[in-house]
Amino acid sequence: MSSSTVITNIAALVTNDPSLGDNSPLGLVRDAAVVIDGDRVAWTGESSKAPATDNRVDAGGRAALPGFVDSHSHLLFGGDRTEEFNARMSGRPYSAGGIRTTVAATRAASDAELEAGLTRYLEEALRQGTTTFETKSGYGLTTADESRALRVAARHTDEVTFLGAHIVAPELADDPAAYVALVTGEMLDACAPHARWIDVFCEKGAFDGDQARAILTAGKAKGLHPRIHANQLSYGPGVRLAVELDAASADHCTHLTDADVDALANSGTVATLLPGAEFSTRAEWPDARRLIDAGATVALSTDCNPGSSFTSSVPFCVALAVRDMGMTPDEAVWSATAGGAAALRRDDVGRLTPGAYADLMLLDAPSHVHLAYRPGVPLVSGVWRRGARVV
Ligand SMILES: [Zn+2]
Questions:
Q1: CATH code assigned to 68-343
Q2: Which of 127, 197, 329, 371 has the fewest CB atoms found within 10 Å of its own CB?
């Protein structure tokens, strides 16, 4: 028999179930308790009504919320891009290879080095409240290097994404059609068994709409579900392709026409916004307000990668989204938890409702609003994952 634990004396509990709380999207409960049984949430409600349990934890008037669901990261890589970032932020020209720099370093890394890096970033993220994460290949760009990245990732998460179509591999730069044939053929065959998702960087300089459609359609035929890097650097076909193919998520969504916004709002495709990328490249912010007001579902995620967004901190992204993207604190917290779960088509994480995984955090603060109100402060003071206290 599993043992049960009640966490009591929670000043403000985010459940993400309106019916459990104050009827807001966050389903907020004041003076709350959560009961964990095994790896699941068994009960949530007011502290005074909590059922008897084997163990008891006093939250000391802290806020509690579901663990963050970081639905977009690139954590299988070698090397780093410190010099490139330093030059960009110092206004100096820098003519290195961008993603190609990371591809060379990743190919040169051993399996153990790749896994050690992944583990380090995951532990970093866990300490900041992330209990579910997606991660991608995309820095190998050969059949062997892409499939080994996915094998390593699959030892740490179920949410593994094949991104062979990140850029055209350097050795096939003059023959992109041959690279698309490789990605949709031998590479896909080797990678599909280790992944749940397939992704494409649909952008000028990467893959156009027709190439992206061919790659995602081939992935679907192998049982992978699509998600797309869309409309990050410029207007383009990515978002509408995501909707056409019923992708779980269109990621970035920085440059959107009214037709793109309407398409997202009338679809099951989540708009995942990644403000770490705009922050780290001094780029224009995505307009979360416009998407939410139109009725689209919005997720917030880190895009943690060594080139354009080297942060594993969802709280940092929440603060940026509130400060610069027009989100309310409540909306940003919802998007980083329930929104991320929607972007991974999961209903067992991102919420604290009976039957969901007991993935949650305590904040050294009386309210989730402090995540945006106190930017840069390490507020996460306790994390439970699958019912076990891990921080
Ligand atoms: Zn990305």
A1: 3.20.20.140
A2: 127
3-state helix, strand, coil in the chain (%, to 5): 35, 25, 40
Task: Please state the domain extents for the chain.
Answer: 4-67+350-389, 68-343
Report the separation in Å between the CA atom of 281 and the middle of ligand 1, taken as the mean of its atom positions.
13
Q: What is the pLDDT of residues 227-265, one digit of tens each?
A: 999 999 999 999 999 999 999 999 999 999 999 999 999
Report the separation in Å between the CA atom of 19 and the middle of ligand 1, taken as the mean of its atom positions: 34
Around ion ligand 1, which residues have CB less than 5 A away? 303
Residues 6+ apart with CB under 8 A from 98: 84, 307
Q: What mean pLDDT comes out for the span 353-365? A: 98
> How far from 334 is each of 24, 41, 58, 292, 314, CA to CA, in Å?
11, 18, 25, 12, 12
Strand ranges (E), the chain: 4-14, 28-37, 40-46, 55-58, 63-66, 68-70, 130-136, 159-165, 197-202, 225-230, 249-252, 270-273, 298-300, 360-363, 380-385, 388-389
CA 162 to ligand 1 centroid distance, Å: 12
